[in-house]
């Protein structure tokens, strides 16, 4: 009984971590880009987090990945973190509200279903209905007010979401490092790419970021990257996929509330409607996935690493 209670407490803590921490990172990114160039901030965040996590894992005795595994993980890291999170950071620097950004990113599971069809992962009618509903939500969101004056910013967030969805699905077909080493390699490579992109883009840190900016990056490194990714990996290993990916429709609500409470962001009635439609669409797709996951699958496709990779869900902001 004590062991069961302990596991239950760990699940609750892991869920709380994903719901609150990942939901809060959109707001924290908004604070950070107030005194950091966006690509530089994202690069520093992931490079430091990746090196720290890699060091911890090596001290624990985790094995080094093979060259092929490292290349595969690095490629996925570029799609998920460098393009996915990097463009989100740039969009928030362009004054796309953090809450609206989170709502758009919530559509990643919808894009993931579409990309899954490339590799023969058939979508159910319920999933296709959810995708259609989500597209309606995106259209409403882009005509609701906040994004009409910033089409480029909105486009960047959509591209980020598509990149994360494609990388998430593709990763299930690749030979990747074991356990948390996946995240460490992905963050190191993505951080390096973002730092190079920052330099090529002419970003310069003319002065030391203010206290809020430094705290924001520290929060993103420790909580938004290392701790949250560890919690997510724990959930993938110990909880049903539907529960592990439930953050997809909780994060936008957390982000919107934080943006309204601390950054003065406001949603008009159309944007509130779009938020509700997109969250409903993601819930419908998750329900459709749960039905699909109950179908028998060949034994060779049930390896834990492939299951974890396929269920990675949406961008960790």
Number of domains: 1
Beta-strand content bin: under 5%
Shape field: globular
Mean pLDDT score: 83
Which radius of gyration do the C-alpha atoms yield? 19 Å
Which sheet architecture does the biggest sheet show? none
Number of helices: 13
SSE pattern, N- to C-terminal? HHHHHHHHHHHHH
Helix content: over 70%
Q: Cα distance, first to last residue?
A: 36 Å
Low-pLDDT runs: 296-315
Question: What is the SS-derived class?
Answer: mainly alpha
The count of β-strands is 0
Describe the structure.
By secondary structure, the protein is mostly helical. It has one domain. 74% of the residues lie in helices and 0% in strands. It is built from 13 helices and no strands. Helix 2 runs antiparallel to helix 3 (67-93), helix 4 packs antiparallel against helix 11 and helix 5 packs across helix 6 (125-142). 51% of the residues are buried.
Features:
74% helix, 317 residues, globular, 0% strand, disordered C terminus, mainly alpha
Summarize the structure.
This protein has helices spanning 2-32, 38-60, 67-93, 98-105, 108-116, 125-142, 151-171, 181-200, 211-238, 241-244, 251-262, 269-293, 304-310. The chain has 317 residues and is mainly alpha-helical.
């Amino acid at each position: 009984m004590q062991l069961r209670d302990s596991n239950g407490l760990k699940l609750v803590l892991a869920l709380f971590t994903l719901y609150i921490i990942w939901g809060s990172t959109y707001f924290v990114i908004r604070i950070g880009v107030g005194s950091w160039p966006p690509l530089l901030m994202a690069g520093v965040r992931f490079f430091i987090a990746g090196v720290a996590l890699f060091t911890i894992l090596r001290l624990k005795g985790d094995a080094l990945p093979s060259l092929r595994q490292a290349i595969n993980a690095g490629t996925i890291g570029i799609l998920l973190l460098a393009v996915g999170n990097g463009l989100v950071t740039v969009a928030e620097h362009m004054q796309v509200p953090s809450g609206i950004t989170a709502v758009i990113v919530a559509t990643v599971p919808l894009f993931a279903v579409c990309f899954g069809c490339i590799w023969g992962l058939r979508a159910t009618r319920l999933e296709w209905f959810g995708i259609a509903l989500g597209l309606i939500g995106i259209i409403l969101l882009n005509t609701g007010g906040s994004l009409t004056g910033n089409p480029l910013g909105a486009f960047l967030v959509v591209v980020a979401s598509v990149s994360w969805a494609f990388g998430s699905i593709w990763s299930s077909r690749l030979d990747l490092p074991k356990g948390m080493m996946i995240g460490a390699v992905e963050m190191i490579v993505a951080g390096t790419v973002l730092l190079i992109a920052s330099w090529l883009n002419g970003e310069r840190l003319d002065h030391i970021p203010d206290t809020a900016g430094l705290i924001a990056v520290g929060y993103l490194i420790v909580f938004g990257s290392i701790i949250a990714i560890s919690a997510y990996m724990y959930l993938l290993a110990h909880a049903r996929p539907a529960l592990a990916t439930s953050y997809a429709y909780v994060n936008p609500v957390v982000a919107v509330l934080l943006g309204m409470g601390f950054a003065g962001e406001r949603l008009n009635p159309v944007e509130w409607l779009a938020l509700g439609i997109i969250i409903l669409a993601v819930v419908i797709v998750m329900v459709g996935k749960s039905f699909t996951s109950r179908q028998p699958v060949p034994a060779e496709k049930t390896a834990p690493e492939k299951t974890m990779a396929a269920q990675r869900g949406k961008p960790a902001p």
